[in-house]
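Hi F.,

I've been meaning to write this up properly since the lab meeting, where we talked about keeping a consistent format for the predictions we share between groups. The idea is simple: the sequence comes first, exactly as it goes in, then the structure tokens exactly as they come out, then a line or two of notes. No screenshots and no reformatting. I'm using this chain as the first example so we have something concrete to point to.
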Amino acid sequence: MNLNETNCPDCKRCEILRQRFAISSPATLAQAIRVARDNVADRTIIEVPYGSETDDQPPFSDLKTEGPWNDVLGYAFRCTTCGQLFHLRAETYHGSGGEWCPVTHL
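Output, unedited:
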């Protein structure tokens, strides 16, 4: 995964989402979930299949902002206008954090 790279730097629809956001606490994870959820709701982005160590996680639509959360979270999204990919990941068990970031591929 290439972090902080964009497929379409001129897309106005997902422009505000094309920045890295570090997740360092439960509060910042909740904020990232809220922002992603709002952008899914208004169809700026859609969830796309993403699997690996997070195959047993709930669908993003079922993820609660306030938790409880699985030990590892990983979700992928795509801009409905330009196709830019985004990744939301967090490790909650040990508290090592995570991030929201644009990526070129998953």
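Notes:
The longest helix spans residues 26-41.
The chain has a mean pLDDT of 86.

If this format works for you, I'll send the rest the same way.

G.
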